[in-house]
Amino acid sequence: MLMQTHEARLSALREELARRELDGFVIPISDEHLSEYVGAYAQRLAWLTGFGGSAGSAAVIRKPVKGTGAAMFVDGRYTLQVREQVDGKLYEYKSVPTDSMGDWLVECAPQGARIGFDPWLHTRGWAEQMKTRLTKGGAELVAVESNPLDAVWEDQPQPSPAPAFLQDERHAGRSSADKRAEIADWLKAEKLDAVVISALDSVAWTLNIRGKDVDHTPVALSYLTVQADGTADWFIAPGKVPDDVAQALGNAVRIRPRDEFSEAFAAFAGKRVAADPDRSVAAIFERLDEVGAQIVSETDPAVLPKAIKTEAEQQGHRAAQKRDGGAVTRFLHWLEGEAPGGTVDELSAAARLQAFREKCGDLRDLSFDTISGAGPNGASPHYRVNEETNRTLEPNSVYLVDSGGQYPDGTTDITRTVWIGPGEPSAEIRDRFTRVLKGHIALATQTFPPGTPGSALDALARQFLWMAGLDYAHGTGHGVGSFLGVHEGPQRIAKPRGSQAGTDQELMAGMLLSNEPGYYKAGEYGIRIENLVVVEERHIEGAEGDWLGFETLTLVPIDRTMVDRELLTEAEIGWWNDYHAQVRETIAPELDGEALAWLENACRPL
């Protein structure tokens, strides 16, 4: 009999901790590659607690000295969602970074407690910081050899057996051999013998392969080591490498069973080996230490070149955006006709949007679970609809839809906020929507010198909200992959990270980012306007030195119903009109009939 309730699962975990003589355990959303989105087999936090967000952790104490002995730690994006999905009788709600998990464990665990963690799911930095905090509080951090959740999760899925496949070089713009040669040159320049690459998107980019092992992210569960002589070892489960993939990689890439990865480190004894402390789990560093390797902490050498898109990748994104824009426009036309009748709900809207994408050609997957938020559900920035939370798109309300597609030539991500009629939006909604729009335009039109980090631009998008005493609790922009992760680093546009503010990556020509300011009124509605942009070189008459700016790639009408024209400057109105003229010119060939007529009307000058 499988455990159906989260209370039973929590109880089973505590019994397993007792068998292992552990007093507590930490459960992150993570896999052995520190992925943002993980395969079904690694969804341990969701199974244990019911939480469906993409970022968060839980801590469980077997016999607490205070409180429930279990807590959920999430950031501001999930404040509402965690309360809707996780039973408050079982788990306390904690807000990151205000609440410290280490402090909570010290306060709630008995003196001398042994707190377990899985070293294949955490970074070395996390483990060191947690060990220091627990030791100071009279507790001990213990690395487990196997995860106790796996011992009690009776119907835990197996890792995906799907085969890897090639990413066509005409989409990649560079060969795998060229990328591996660049990494080898870097290794030799740094006097390193090898580098361990464990981030799934970095492995995929380096080898020009993709996979179907993680929902919405086309990667294959595997590890890669690259040596200074240009050869590489790819650790992947047997049977997942078709002949055409092996032939394309050639003899310079040795294909080895995935379960040999840790054992293979023995060959690094006495060698200088690079590993990324932010993208490699603690267990990798532990194993390198054990075999006597000299560990050099370096950023994964695939990260920056992966972020700077080739001309082929940029052209691929434009083509993907055109198809995707046609699909989203068809959806918005359909929505305007159907939703005011009160017959559309969040699930049916998301399904219809996916159907339009599937008809547009070559959709391989969604790039993430569609955020289909009606009314108050839209106030949760990373809301994910299910049967229990599903709401009707009520007449005279705000609907937020954030969605994207995975195509072989590009990854899309777009948010549109729509007024569901037949009535008119309130003055407050028009004000908030227009302030978000003004921030979006300010960022889209900004020029900046090389060397500028995204954190230096973040306030541009928030300024008009700030003037009204308003803000939003998420970043303004994230990097985007090329038929890879919809969230990709190292570039970002967000508030400075405290003491780490100086480490923010400078924005460079060829980088893809989102532009997505928003506003959220808890219990009522959410607003977000998101387009993808690419950093490009920008010529300014009379300028001194080099300058950069953004080309907007996403081309879909923005709802004019909620725009307060009186709050816009002439320059902002000019941007709106120019943008919608480009939308009309680009997307019109994708449409016909009523959808085309709807586009023409939606794109008329403001």
UniProtKB/TrEMBL annotation:
Residues 9-145 form the Creatinase N-terminal domain. One of its GO terms (cellular component) is cytoplasm. Residues 547-606 form the Peptidase M24 C-terminal domain. It comes from the Bacteria. InterPro entries: Creatin/AminoP/Spt16_N (IPR029149), Creatinase/aminopeptidase-like (IPR036005), Creatinase_N (IPR000587), Pept_M24 (IPR000994), Pept_M24B (IPR033740), Peptidase_M24_C (IPR032416), X-Pro_aminopeptidase_P (IPR050422). One of its GO terms (molecular function) is metalloaminopeptidase activity. Keywords: Aminopeptidase, Hydrolase, Metal-binding, Protease. Residues 317-537 form the Peptidase M24 domain. Belongs to the peptidase M24B family. This is Aminopeptidase P family protein. It comes from Aurantiacibacter spongiae.
